[in-house]
Design brief:
This protein folds into 2 domains: 296 residues, Zn peptidases (Aminopeptidase, 3-Layer(aba) Sandwich), CATH 3.40.630.10; 114 residues, Alpha-Beta Plaits (2-Layer Sandwich), CATH 3.30.70. The protein contains 12 helices and 19 strands. The strands form 5 sheets. Strands 5, 6, 7, 8, 9, 10, 17, 18 and 19 form a 9-stranded mixed β-sheet that branches. Strands 13-15-11-16 form a 4-stranded antiparallel β-sheet, with helices on one face. The structure holds glyoxylic acid and manganese (II) ion (MN) (2 copies).
Length: 427
């Protein structure tokens, strides 16, 4: 379709649309890097599998003629330097959880490339550079905290501390970056973009259930992660009377139950998860010596999240006393709820409406790199439906028609943000 010219004689991207087959082909090609049964991928951050995914995306950036830069925390940026000024940035991540789907993160990165290729092909040049970011270790499955690459990019953690982060397998982040060849030279913290907008699957059930195509994401709920280590007395399972046990497995189970009950009692947006339980020595006939569990606690309201953390801490003190175990808690991540820039959220909602889509303003339940970029520049996100709300699972699925709708909203949003003067957007 040929580009239109508006009343100011400024070329407009409206009417130009992304190529669905090209987007689908890249999603499938990246999905086939380290595939797992059921159609997903496993690319834990900074593993050989992550390197393979990075190499593929970087080669696509090079093929498009983008300026490719890698920074000191391994974030990759592909920038179309088509105009002067700071870029409008999009992007996401391509690392996955161990049971990753094909869309979480990948969609945002590849839709960004698709937006740029679409504009290039149409002969349309935005008023500012456009940049696509691939942020390191968004998932936080291997290294905590999550969103570490974008956090470092905005100066939320020093590069030294970030590089010294240890993986769940004991590896040092900086060493892994060097090993896979992504210890780049671009500075961290990095330059502040003009604006940031991230396209992502919802990873929850709401859009599909309500028959809505586009989520205009107005914020991200707060995240509290901790690792809890319970130490008791290892002993013989057959000979140790129940009343003499100091059993970390029982305490771990009690914490799981307490979290479920706490979330039910608090209601609203409160969610609590125990995603990891390690028992040692983990044998059928031994009362364990140690249990290590992780707690993931989230709320859109900081006060309520603080309250949940307090209740959990009291419960841990109480059960440690009752069961004669010691409990140590280590903070893995803590991010307050984030409110996105209202003007960018409005822009997404308006463009989605102009495209004829139903729109829902909504917070994100998952963490995203956009919440870090929101600390330094006007930022927001676009969501598309996730089938049955399933994510962090190989069965993750979004219909092509929704993937295409989201990418086209991204296209026009980036175009419009590039036309705006800095005074037209916050901060
Ligand atoms: C990141 O995927 C998260 O856990 O929200
Ligand atoms: Mn993601
Ligand atoms: Mn994820």
């Amino acid at each position: 379709m040929s580009p239109q010219v508006n009343e100011n004689m400024r070329p407009t991207a409206r009417g130009v649309r992304i190529d669905p087959a090209r987007l689908r082909a890249r999603l499938d090609d990246l999905g086939e890097v380290s595939p797992i049964p059921g159609g997903g991928s496993c690319r834990l951050a900074l593993t050989d599998e992550d390197r393979a995914g990075r190499d593929v995306v970087r080669s696509w950036m090079v093929d498009l003629g983008l300026r490719v830069q890698v920074d000191a925390i391994g974030n990759i940026f592909g920038t179309w330097e088509c105009a002067p000024g700071t870029p409008v940035m999009t992007g996401s991540h391509i690392d996955t959880v161990r049971t990753g789907g094909r869309y979480d993160g990948n969609y945002g990165v590849l839709a960004g490339l698709e937006v740029i290729e679409t504009l290039m092909t149409a002969g349309l040049t935005p008023s500012r550079p456009l940049s696509v970011a691939v942020f390191t270790n968004e998932e936080g499955a291997r290294f905590q905290p999550d969103m570490l690459g974008s956090l470092a990019y905005v100066g939320g953690v020093s590069i030294e501390a970030a590089l010294d982060t240890l993986a769940i397998d004991g590896a040092r982040l900086g060493d892994e970056l060097s090993r896979i060849g992504y210890n780049g030279s671009a500075p961290v913290p990095g330059p502040v973009p003009h604006a940031f907008i991230e396209l992502h699957i919802e990873q929850g059930p709401l859009l599909e259930a309500e028959g809505v195509t586009i989520g205009a994401v107005d914020g991200v709920q707060g995240i509290s992660w901790q690792e809890v280590t319970i130490t008791g007395q290892s002993n013989h399972a057959g000979t140790t009377p129940m009343h003499l046990r100091r059993d970390p497995a029982f305490v771990a189970g009690s914490i799981v139950v307490f979290l479920r009950e706490l979330a039910a009692e608090m209601g609203g947006n409160q969610v609590c998860t125990v995603g990891k339980i390690d028992l040692s020595p983990n044998l059928v006939n031994v009362v364990p010596a140690v249990a290590k569990i992780t707690l993931d606690v989230r709320n859109t309201d900081e006060e309520l999240l603080l309250g949940a953390e307090r209740r959990i801490s009291e419960f841990l003190d109480d059960i440690a006393l009752r069961e004669a175990v010691t409990i140590q808690s280590r903070r893995l991540a803590r991010f307050e709820p984030v409110v996105f820039d209202p003007e960018v959220v409005d822009l997404v909602a308006t463009i989605a409406g102009d495209h004829g889509h139903s729109v829902k303003r909504m917070p994100s339940g998952a963490g995203h790199d956009a919440q870090m970029l929101a600390r330094v520049c006007p930022s927001a996100m676009i969501f598309v439906p996730s089938h049955l709300g399933i994510s962090h699972n190989a069965a993750e699925h979004t219909d092509d028609v929704d993937l295409v709708a989201g990418a086209n909203v991204l296209l026009d949003s980036m175009w419009e943000l590039a036309q705006r003067e800095p005074s037209g957007v916050r901060p």
